[in-house]
Amino acid sequence: MNTTKNKKQQQAGFIYLVFAALFIASLITCNLIANKFVTVDMGFHVFTVSAGVLPYPLTFLITDILSEIYGQKRTNQVVAAGLFSSILILGILYIGNAFPAIADSPVSQHEYATVFQNSWKIILASMAAYLAAQFLDIRIFHFWKKTTKGKHLWLRNNFSTIVSQLIDTTLVVTIIFIGVAEFSFIKDLIIDGWFFKVLFAAADTILIYPIVFAFRKTFNLKPGEELDF
Length: 229
Prior knowledge:
Number of strands: 2
Helix content: over 70%
Shape: globular
Structural class: mainly alpha
Order of helices and strands: HEEHHHHHHH
Strand order of the largest sheet: 1-2
């Protein structure tokens, strides 16, 4: 019996690490490509968003899954790890820019600076928004989980993301463009970015149900029950 329990705990720990790795990889990718702004035609509307927005909804899906299965403490640990990873990347980019490129370098000093010179601002903006939005997302998620006694997963999945994404988008866009662009431009980017994320939050409800169901079946969890490993 103990052997079976230990195997389940090891399995739970490994899956937790995989989700943590996916979360951090998505977060870092968001920061590195956030300088590029693109248009995404959804048919009913053409969104103007940072390319960093494209993988970002995955981070909120992962934190919702972790919150549901592993609990608030474990999820906060992943968010903290993501913050430290972002700080590390910021330092590495700074060091990379400090050394001049050689004449035959495939990437020139100018090209490197063009892509990454603004990354410090993007990452700082992202970290400020990240701390506010991710921890708020987790807090709201668990508030609704407690209020509904573990029922209505769709409610906490969507409500937590809708509120936290609004804060995240507003902070990031404002910090990046304040004093550089007109208020109307900033406002339009905030609306487009937030609505785009909300659509993905609604769509990921389709994914979170089978994933949570698989967890509950594998680890014999009751609705609202969390893993302890």
